[in-house]
Design a protein that fits this description.
The chain has 61 residues and is mainly α. 84% of the residues lie in helices and 0% in strands. The relative contact order is 0.06.
Length: 61
Amino acid sequence: MFGLGMGELVIIGIVGVLLFGGKLPEIAKAAGRGVKEFQKGFRDLKEDVEKSDQDDSSQSS
């Protein structure tokens, strides 16, 4: 995963807990929502492009 070993991931996790403490679950939840919204936006964009391609191909026939 991104060229990081298990030791590096553990250190990053410990630093995260020390820095953010009790707010870590809230931060993780917000990050998850952000990723979900990004995926939804990307999926919508992909569907729009595919629909536009289909419309263009049907009009040229």
